[in-house]
Amino acid sequence: MTSQSLTGAFLNNFLGSAPGWYKKTIIAFLLINPLLLLISPTLVGWCLILEFIFTLAMALRCYPLQPGGLLAIEAIILGLTDTHHVLEEIEHTLDVILLLMFMVAGIYFMKNMLLFVFTKVLMKIRSKMALSFLFSFLAAVLSAFLDALTVTAVLIAVSVGFYSVYHKVASGKGFDSDHDHGEDSTIKEQHREELEQFRSFLRSLMMHGAVGTALGGVCTTVGEPQNILISTRVEWDFIEFFLQMAPVTMPVLACGLVTCLVLEKTGWFGYGAKLPENVRAILSEFEQNESAKRNQRDNAALIVQAVVAILLVIGLAMHWATPGIIGLMVIILCTAFNGIIEEHQIGHAFEEALPFTALLVVFFAIVAVIKDQGLFEPVIEAVLSLDESLQPGVFFLANGVLSAISDNVFVATVYIDSVTQQFQAGAFDREHFNLLAVAINTGTNLPSVATPNGQAAFLFLLTSALAPLIRLSYGKMVIMALPYTIVLTIVGFLGVYFY
User: Which letter does DSSP use for residue 429 in this model?
Assistant: First the structure.
């Protein structure tokens, strides 16, 4: 009896409050993988990728760090990779890890200024189409000069701010009260339908903004992590990279923005929800309340945050340092000049980013498996065996599919290294090498919006504190990204094909 109770306690503790069927599925994965290894390491490698994607898809049921981490640990035990290779993958993307650790925390200390600015924008622009276009366009421009993760962090911070303000009032509390905005049981009945519409409104804005980061991120060397690697291999500076990509990226940007307007006009794929008038009134009242009680110290804090935001943009655009180091600068300046000097005050800023950073490291373990087992090599060899005239278009599509399955940074790294080796061996001329580089960059950046795991910014959004608040699941993201995926893939492919 005691043994049964203890066994039951272990099962109840395993993955906590996750559904029973989910727990059994993860256990099944862990038991099946060693058996599949007896058949083929390649087979278990592909199964591991699909299993990890499953944990991402079920992120709202259970944070992917734990089940995904168990799969990664098992992969190392089974010899599909080793800890040295995992460390190498981490070292290659250390800039991204530092970015998450420090830049996202830095944005946290600027949230009052961001909420102030975006509330003004929201109150001034009443047209949902205009607002959606603005979100997408600004996200694209900022991502081209900053980076997609930083821009996504800003959008998340603003949306959480809006949501928490409304949720307090809908729960019958004042603006200044302490409140758990993740708990809906306190929402008054008359506000429930309104809350769902507000969630839909925020979901559409966030998806427009997230896709905007992809539209802008593909254009320049600093937009996405793999862009820097590609530009290094082909020896392009910032301007040359932009010009080489422009025949593909500029039509894609234009068509992406038109798609944004069409989706808002038609309401297809979960878009089109407008800001409820009562929510607008609450946010307007919040703005007036904040303005009325704001003292000189508060004004000084907003000025400091605004100045630091300008320094952030300049620092990233001028490449003073890696984005993560600049993020640390943001933390130091915002806290030092706004009197935030206690450890527990600073600690809250890291609560959002560190779980995702840990998940990203687990993801690198899966990437190490892909690399060590050569799962993508047959695709690369098949594409390089084609006629030169077909290679760019096929590279674009192959990169897109593999990026959506795994990760665009890894896929770009594998492909550009393989192509560079072929070029150095004299397999093709410089002009063809340049064209393949364009195909690899656009292929990994554009079709990868199909899934949250395709781009780090999308995965960050999915696993953020905002996603469960606005009911943005893996499946919902895939559906809402689908029209963009189709348009970006078709236009990008045609741009590469007729380059």
Answer: -
CA atoms of 73 and 97, how far apart (whole Å)? 20
CA gap 164, 178 in Å, rounded: 10
Residue pair 103/153 in contact by the 8 Å Cβ criterion: yes
Domain extents in the chain: 16-80, 108-219+243-319
In this structure, what token pair is assigned to residue 462? Answer: 């999915």
* Exposed / middle / buried, residue 172 (Cβ in 10 Å: 0-12, 13-18, 19+): exposed
Lookup result for tokens 């420090």 = 102
The three-point CA angle 468-469-475 to 5° equals 40
Name the nearest CA neighbour of 160 among 100, 104, 111, 197: 111
* Helix-strand-coil split of the chain, %, nearest 5: 80, 0, 20
Identity of the residue numbered 320: W
Assigned token pair, 417: 């290294």
Question: Alpha-carbon distance 314 to 291, whole Å?
Answer: 29
Q: Are 443 and 418 in contact (CB under 8 A)?
A: no
**Residue in 239, 240, 219, 221 with CA at minimum distance from that of residue 230:** 221
| Ordered mean pLDDT values, 10 residues apiece, the chain (499 residues) | 68 87 93 92 91 82 90 94 89 79 84 80 87 90 77 84 84 64 69 88 93 91 78 84 93 96 94 90 84 85 90 81 86 92 86 82 86 82 83 90 78 81 84 92 92 82 88 91 96 93
Picking from 412, 406, 409, 397, the residue whose alpha carbon sits closest to that of residue 375 is 406
Residue 277 corresponds to which tokens in the numbers above?
């008038």
Question: Cβ(302)–Cβ(339) under 8 Å?
Answer: no
Give Cα separations from 138 to 30, 146, 406 (angstroms): 44, 11, 28
Q: What pTM was computed for the model?
A: 0.80
